[in-house]
Amino acid sequence: MDTKIVLLAEDNPSDEEPTIRALKRGGLPIEVSVVRDGEQALAYLLDDDSRPLPDLLLLDLNLPKINGLDVLARIRSDERIRHLLVIIVSSSSKPEDVEAAYRLGCNGYLTKGVDYLRFVESAKILAQYWLIYNIPPVQARMSV
Q: What are the angstrom distances between the C-alpha of 77 and each of 6, 46, 70, 71?
């Protein structure tokens, strides 16, 4: 199986480490790149056409500079990356945040929660589903 590229947009190092650990426990060959704010996330996705697009973006809502919802809206408005798989990973489970994320086109929503073991298991299942079993649109694989 090819190595899957995951972009993690997370500003909190204490959330970054368990997320990466959980992804790697899924038994998949995964390369994780981390960006610390929304501006870096958009630069990663839009500024370097030679870099392959990630197979999956794990996007925190509460990012500095440009928040996660604005990053998601920008992704969905750009023809080259509009089909990118985007999973919101947030500490917020407020109905208005969940609704806004889905309205803007996220593919899924996972809360970080305080139960570490549950989060690890959820992240492992998430990676397996989206990176192995899901069939993405052809456009998500193409880089221009």
A: 21, 12, 11, 10
pTM of the model: 0.89
CATH number at residue 129: 3.40.50.2300
What residues form DSSP beta bridges with 87? Answer: 58, 108
Whether the per-residue pLDDT at 120 is higher than 90: the answer is no
- CA distances to 73, 84, 103, 119, 132 from 42, rounded to whole Å, are 11, 12, 20, 26, 25
Read off the pLDDT band of 138 (50, 70, 90): low
**Side-chain half-sphere CA neighbours of 134 within 13 A:** 20
What domain count does the chain have? 1
Q: Do the beta carbons of residue 95 and residue 88 sit within 8 Å? A: no
Contact 56, 131 (CB under 8 A): yes
Give the domain range for residue 38: 4-141
The first and second tokens of residue 41, run together, are 């996330």
Q: Output the DSSP codes for 43-55.
A: HHHHS-TTSPPPS
